[in-house]
Amino acid sequence: MLRYAILALGMLAFAGQAEAISRYNSTAMSCASVQARIANEGAAIMRYRSQRNPSLTLYDRYVANEFLCPAGHRAVRSYIPTADQASCPVLHCKPDMRDRSRRRPWIFD
């Protein structure tokens, strides 16, 4: 048992640090700076107030390209509010319904 504990500690010692994702308020930034931040960091979480219900804060993870999406997801165009634009184009990951493994098994083509 001690051998397994030593092995586990050794593996933890070599594990790299997990990189934290940055969080920003998109309405405090210009559209160009939001896009630049996402491009530089690869991915970022952007927060903003809901237009329908201002008491709600909405957020999502936005990515620089499709390669940063998890398996079975693809990057799709989305629009978020910024300080200078009501709809700034960005990319976010969405489940890829074209992927046959993600479909419901009881639905046949």
Mean model confidence by pLDDT: 83
- Kindly give the count of domains: 1
Count up the helices.
2
Helix share of residues? 10-25%
Order of helices and strands: HEHEEEE
* End-to-end Cα distance: 52 Å
Strand order of the largest sheet: 1-2-3-5-4
By DSSP, the count of extended strands is 5
Give the C-alpha Rg. Answer: 19 Å
Shape summary: globular
Profile the largest sheet: 5 strands, mixed
Quick overview of this protein structure:
The protein is of the alpha+beta class. It has helices spanning 2-14, 31-41, and strands spanning 22-25, 43-49, 57-63, 73-80, 88-95. The model has no long low-confidence stretch (mean pLDDT 83).
Descriptive account of the structure:
With 109 residues, the chain is an alpha+beta fold. It has one domain. It contains 2 helices and 5 strands; from the N terminus they run αβαββββ. The longest helix has 13 residues. It starts with a helix and ends in a 14-residue tail after the last strand.
Topology of this protein?
Elements (H helix, E strand, L loop, with lengths): L1 H13 L7 E4 L5 H11 L1 E7 L7 E7 L9 E8 L7 E8 L14
Parallel strand pairs: 1-2
Antiparallel strand pairs: 2-3, 3-5, 4-5
Characteristic terms for this protein:
single chain; 109 residues; alpha+beta; 22% helix; globular
